[in-house]
Amino acid sequence: MRIGELSERSGVSARLLRYYEEQDLLKPKRDNSGYRDYPESMVSLAAQIRELIESGLTTEIIRQILPCVIEHNSAILPRFPEHAVAQLREHQAKIAARICCLTATHGAIDSYLDAVAKRQEEMLQATNS
User: Fold this and answer.
1) What is d(CA 36, CA 31) in angstroms, rounded to the nearest whole number?
2) Read out DSSP for 55-123?
3) H/E element holding 30?
4) Cα separation of 51 and 24, whole Å?
5) Nearest CA to 8 among 16, 32, 33, 76?
6) Residue 120 pLDDT class (50, 70, 90 cuts)
7) What secondary structure letter does DSSP report for 32?
8) Residue 59 to residues 4, 26, 99, 124: CA-CA distances in angstroms?
9) Rounded to whole angstroms, how far apart are CA atoms 104 and 110?
10) What is the spatial distance between Cα 51 and Cα 11, in angstroms, rounded to a whole number?
11) Could you tell me the CA-to-CA distances from 94 to 90, 97, 100 in Å, in that order?
């Protein structure tokens, strides 16, 4: 598939797909005319890369863990520098903290919306009385 179709199907802009290619995260084949030709598997891979970047991982770390992500097999993971493992652990802890914060925020918004709905119901009942 061409870059436009991959962009549409993965939800990743063509500009970002080109950036992922520059960063050696995506490796499309080229047809005889030089156009990028992406296999079906790149739809989910492009979306995964975007999610990893949005989570705050660097393209350098993503490039190193990508073989594991693609194959879903940690045995094929190349030698991973200890500093990178430490970075991943630190990043994982930050994500866990964000999840806790987001969960608390979600609960607070839920409570607020419940209170608003209750207040609106009370006002409606008072108006109808």
Assistant:
1) 7
2) TT--HHHHHHHHHHHHHT-GGGPPP--HHHHHHHHHHHHHHHHHHHHHHHHHHHHHHHHHHHHHHHHHH
3) strand 29-30
4) 16
5) 16
6) very high
7) T
8) 22, 11, 22, 54
9) 10
10) 11
11) 6, 5, 10
Q: Which of 78, 20, 77 is nearest to 46 (CA)?
A: 20
How many residues are there in the chain?
129
Judge contact between 55 and 47, C-beta under 8 A.
Answer: no
Nearest CA among 26, 9, 29 for reference residue 17:
26
Our measurement of the distance from residue 61's CA atom to the centroid of its chain's CA atoms, rounded to an integer in Å, reads 14
| Mean pLDDT for the stretch of residues 72-90 | 72
Lowest mean pLDDT among 36-40, 55-59, 64-68, 124-128: 64-68
Q: Both tokens of residue 46?
A: 């492009």
CA distances 108 to 56, 96, 114, Å, are 25, 19, 10
